[in-house]
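Ticket #4471: structure output looks truncated?

Reporter: J.K.
Steps to reproduce: submitted the chain below (466 residues) through the standard prediction queue, then opened the result file.
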Amino acid sequence: MADGKYEKNEKLFGSDPPSEQDIGSSTEVVGQVSDISGFEQQKEALGNAHFKRLGWKRLTVVLIVEAIALGSLSMPAAFATLGMVAGTILSVGLGLIAIYTSYVVGQVKLKFPEVQHYADAGRLIMGKFGYELIGAMFVLQLTFLVGSHCLTGTIAFLNITNNGTCSLVFGIVSAIILLLLAIPPSFAEVAILGYIDFVSIMSAIFITIIATGIQRTDAGVASDWSAWPEENVTFTKAFIAITNIVFAYSFAICQFSFMDEMHTPKHFVKSIWALGLIEIFIYTLTGALIYAFVGHGVKSPSLLSAGTLVSKVAFGIALPVIFISGSINGTVVARYIHGRVYKNSVTRFINTTKGWTTWLALISFITLIAWVIAEAIPFFSDLLAISSALFVSGFTFYFPAIFWFMLIRQGKWYAKENLFKSIVNALVFIIGMIVLVGGTYASIVDIMDQYKEGSVRGAFTCAPFE
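Returned output as attached by the reporter:
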């Protein structure tokens, strides 16, 4: 009956306002508390109500904000390296695997409601060591994500202004915008920006597809796209392309954090199916069409392939998704750290002076580190690749496989009812290991090669991006 009531009352964003019982007795005068204990109890009640407002519709929007962003901009270049056939197979195949592993993550959350972040699940499988290891990976991956958005913001501003000023300045401007958008601590508030975010990325992609198609028609020459991998493709280039596709499906990392704000967590399945299918459609179509129109000369991020004027328009339209999607990663990692430091204090709800002060300081520090990463690894594809290899390989592939074997499976792995899922999860684990080892090696080699060849600008310089 309770679940039915939630669904019946669910509004446009899939959430309910807190009841009077949640926030205190109606006989109390606002702002009047008899002692510190009463004040803290009221703040805790308000905090709990504030952070339990997500329905499945709003969760879908938040996941879209977090997921559909930079991944789509790297897909055409990945298709160019791997060929149309392999690119399509990997885009659809890895997308379906990501939906499944996200489902496993959701099952863990339902079975262990106390899990608030990915690191908490690490404790379930490896104790204190697992908690610390996955917690460190969680923080690093999300900080890398903020950094990648900071880098993309810099590229966008440089493109729009024709390298109008020192790239370091645009990097700082991008970091400040990401910081300001990360200040609201509740994901329910971010969901409202999700509609702007989604329209932004879809419009930018749509404009790029149309522009590249028109350019190809005007050229009067067929594109040099191929169904097969480009000639003499190296292991390094191939794996950079694969890890860029892996990066596009990295939404499971924040799922525990988002589900922790749901008022009816079991509805998560609707959200991941909606997100997963939308992602597969957008990524595959974007990668295939832009590659088909541009050919092997397609650039990464793909908006750079739309021509001088149109790329400026596309980047201008893409600014909301660059910064909104980037900021939510900062919010997630800050929520994890802040909640861990102030686990047993009302400060964790960020509705007191101390709560807001510590929150703002933490968000600022995370953004600073992200900016340093963006300046230290100033090339788009390799930044996504090393992030995917080191972290997404675990959060999307081998950790969910381990979760199934250790936390979800009932009975022997070789039992008739478990055998198929055991094989599937074993394959998912192997995929994760291959991405971890191969992707890390390829990323390091490619970064070193580009510095040796001088094909990228140096770190922390005013030089523009090529």
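Triage note (M.O.): checked the attachment and the full token line is present. The chain has a mean pLDDT of 84.
Status: closed, working as intended.
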